[in-house]
Design goal:
The protein is 69% helix and 4% strand. By secondary structure, the chain is mainly α. Strands 1-3-2 form a 3-stranded antiparallel sheet. Helix 5 crosses helix 7. The radius of gyration is 21 Å and the shape is elongated.
């Protein structure tokens, strides 16, 4: 490669804008549509028109189309031939049971492998729990008189902090494939929020159950963390069950 070729590769083409602003716009559109899917304002089966969403969000159709393609991978929306995108139905009882079965198997294995690394895990797990507690407090204080969250961004951050607590333990397992599998479940964890009543949350219960998992690691008893984790997942499964 000569110097001219090297310079041509290093420098952006004349007049070309960097990709970062476009990616940031797409991510913003993604978050805006995701909010509508999870806050209950867009019921299952609703049509998601690219042009109408672009007008409402005051953007061009391109980032909307890109965001919808990305959201399709989460299972929250589906694309129907000749009809476009629609909000997907929540997970069925059978799908919920299978998802929690997988999570229990995967996360129990991760906990058992993380126990020998408790000394290294505890500072990070305490930090993750504190972050979850903070976001849960923000959601509680932002609720209106009827107990519903006043805004979705705080709720979304709380959900993210909740899942990060679990991922912190899974990282400590030292098994990269357990971690990759867990990260691939992130989209399905979002679908659990779609299944639950958008007017209610399990924030208080989740915080308490995470505290019990943390205390189990702090106890030094090698059996307690797995027990606390399984009890937490069983409780979450009951709370999101469509059968109540």
């Amino acid at each position: 490669m000569n110097g001219n070729e090297s310079s041509a590769l290093a420098a952006p083409a004349a007049g070309r804008k960097p990709a970062v602003p476009r990616r940031a716009l797409r991510d913003g559109v993604y978050d805006a549509i995701l909010e509508r899917l999870l806050d209950g304002s867009t019921p299952q089966g609703s049509s998601l028109g690219i042009d109408s969403l672009a007008r409402e969000l005051e953007v061009s159709p391109t980032p909307v189309r890109e965001a919808l393609v990305q959201l399709e991978h989460t299972g929250l929306i589906s694309r129907v031939a000749l009809k476009g995108y629609r909000v997907a139905p929540p997970l069925s009882p059978e799908q919920l049971a299978e998802l929690f079965d997988l999570r229990t198997i995967l996360e129990t294995a991760a906990v058992e492998r993380a126990v020998p690394r408790t000394g290294d895990l505890l500072p990070e797990l305490r930090t993750a729990h504190a972050r979850h507690v903070l976001h849960a407090h923000r959601v509680r204080t932002s609720r209106g008189a009827r107990g519903r969250p006043a805004g979705f961004p705080d709720l979304r951050e709380c959900f993210a902090a909740d899942w990060e607590f679990h991922l912190t333990i899974i990282r400590a397992s030292g098994n990269r494939f357990l971690l990759r599998t867990a990260e691939s479940l992130s989209a399905q964890v979002l679908r659990l929020r779609q299944t639950a009543d958008p007017g209610t949350t399990d924030i208080e219960s989740a915080v308490d159950e995470h505290a019990a998992i943390l205390a189990a690691f702090e106890s030094g008893d090698p059996e307690r963390p797995a027990v606390a984790l399984r009890e937490h997942l069983a409780a979450v499964a009951r709370r999101v069950s469509v059968d109540g």
